[in-house]
Amino acid sequence: MKAAPFEYHAPETLEEAVTLLAEFGDEAKVLAGGQSLVPMLALRLARVEQLIDLNRIPSLRYVSAVDGFTRVGAMTTQATVAASRELRQRAPLLAEATRHIGHFQIRNRGTIGGSLSHADPAAEYPAVAVALDAEIDLSSVRGTRTVPATQFFTGSFTTAAEPDEVLTEVRFGPSAPGWAVVELARRHGDFAIAGVACTVRLDAADRIGNLRLGLFGVASTPVRAFSAEQAARGLAAGDVDPVAVGHAALSEVSCVSDVHADADYRRRVAAHLAGQAVTQAVAQAVREARAIREARRG
Questions:
Q1: DSSP notation for 243-292
Q2: Beta-strand relationship, 158-159 and 166-172
Q3: Mapping DSSP to helix (H, G, I), strand (E, B) and coil, where does residue 146 land?
Q4: pLDDT 10s digits, 269-278
Q5: 177-204 pLDDT, tens per residue?
Q6: CA 237 – CA 248 distance, rounded (Å)
Q7: Per-residue DSSP letter, 197
Q8: I need a surface site. Which of 24, 80, 125, 263 has the fewest CB within 10 A?
Q9: 189 and 291 fall within a common domain
Q10: What residues form DSSP beta bridges with 155?
């Protein structure tokens, strides 16, 4: 099939783009990498009167570090995220999650801003943003506002962005030394039936000082597992029970059923993956802590 007719716009500045969005409102859609929107248009699962392509706006492609935050422009491709040495050092969970996304052809075109704006509950980047307490900038002719990632995703494929706003930047705070991304998919590159993004920071006594868990593929939005985070805080690294972590992580989640899996199966899989992710992240954090202590001893 072919997409229904639409008018195509290719602004070269952010100012031009937000002006077009202000003019057309609900009639417009923004095109980033196009890895989700273009197939939906071609299959006529979505229709648009005005298509605004952001690919000619170079100011939306960057990775930089400012005031302790790692800033990533919305049009930065997933391939760039995966290859960035700076992101590997400063936001390793984001870089690690990227290797689970589709295939290299998709990552060459897909963008971080496009993934977050599309808000597929089975996608990796939204869960990473939620787990890392990322900040998301939305721009319009009225100016720029910042929305915490934990408040950005409002439902399946829906966000807090207004029709005349475009996502321009994502910011991540300092990284934790332990991190892991685990997921279950039918084939590599498929969307996850269930998945978990996790970071762990230990205190001086090798106890869990900070744990963050983001679940994806299980509900209508990415889920931050606050109950599991609180339950694990203060535990010695060697005392972490993956079964208990998994139970706590899913204790307040309403899992969804679809053609790929029913809610009960998703719950059991996600609980297992949560325990697995925390175990891997804690082990890595312990190794990092030991390496630092050995380096200090000389």
A1: HHHHHHHTTT------SS--HHHHHHHHHHHHHHHHHHHHHHHHHHHHHH
A2: unpaired
A3: strand
A4: 999 999 999 9
A5: 999 999 999 888 788 999 999 999 999 8
A6: 17
A7: E
A8: 263
A9: yes
A10: 158
Mean pLDDT of 16-42: 90
Same domain, 144 and 214: no
Segment 234-288, tens digit of pLDDT: 999 999 999 999 999 999 899 999 999 999 999 999 999 999 999 999 999 999 8
Tell me, what CATH number does 138's domain have? 3.30.465.10
For 73, the domain range is 59-172
Per the listing, tokens 């422009």 go with: 73
User: Could you tell me the CA-to-CA distances from 118 to 72, 160, 194, 291 in Å, in that order?
Assistant: 17, 12, 18, 40
- Reading the block at residue 178, the tokens are 């332990």
Structure tokens at 94: 């984001």
Residues 38 and 141 in one domain: no
Q: Are 11 and 79 within one domain?
A: no
**Could you give phi then psi for residue 243, rounded to 5 degrees?**
-65, -45
Q: Which two tokens stand for residue 161?
A: 């962005």
